[in-house]
Amino acid sequence: MVIEVIRAFGHENITAKHKTTFEITKDPEIAKKADCIIAVSAEKGASDLSRQFKNVASRPDALIVVDLWASGVHERIIGCGHPDLRFLDPKDLVGRTSSYICARTLMIRTDKAAFHLNREFVKKIQHRDTLIKIRLTARSGASR
């Protein structure tokens, strides 16, 4: 099991309405049309993740869990790793309900997208001063 910890922040333009993806970005500014983004000004993008995390997450039996905390509210998103994950993007981490993989993909076949997040959590992350603590856990040989 490998854990990565990331700090990010909320933003007033977060809508969390995308039904198939969620995104964490290093970008400090977003437009309202960026409806998959759930955290900005993140400390890490895909390429910044540790070699150990990338190695475990790219195993065929990898399980990836994203835990998010904001102002006392917790959300958890569970998905799968894959041997084709490359973690090359310098600024974004994207989780997908589908099996599509690109340089930004953190995990696939997730149980939630931005749209499925608790609306109380979404209200908390719609403020720039809201710190979002993110824990990424990758393990192999695990099942949902």
| Shape, principal axes of CA atoms | globular
- The class by helix and strand makeup works out as mainly beta
Count all strands and give the number.
8
**Strand order across the biggest sheet?**
1-8-4-5
Set out the fold topology.
Layout: E1 2-9, E2 21-25, E3 37-39, H1 51-57, E4 62-70, E5 73-80, E6 92-96, E7 105-107, H2 119-124, E8 131-140
Parallel strand pairs: 2-3, 6-7
Antiparallel strand pairs: 1-8, 2-6, 4-5, 4-8
Defining traits:
mainly beta, globular, single chain, 2 helices, Jelly Rolls, 144 residues, four-stranded antiparallel β-sheet
Can you describe this structure?
With 144 residues, the chain is mostly beta strands. It has a single domain (2-62, 82-129), classed as mth639 domain like (Jelly Rolls). It has two helices and eight strands. It has helices at 51-57, 119-124; strands at residues 2-9, 21-25, 37-39, 62-70, 73-80, 92-96, 105-107, 131-140. The strands form two sheets. Strands 1-8-4-5 form a four-stranded antiparallel beta sheet. β4 and β5 form a beta hairpin. The longest helix has 7 residues, at 51-57. It is globular and about 35 Å long. The chain starts with a strand and ends with a strand. The mean pLDDT is 97.
Short description:
This protein has helices at 51-57, 119-124; strands spanning 2-9, 21-25, 37-39, 62-70, 73-80, 92-96, 105-107, 131-140. With 144 residues, it is mainly beta.
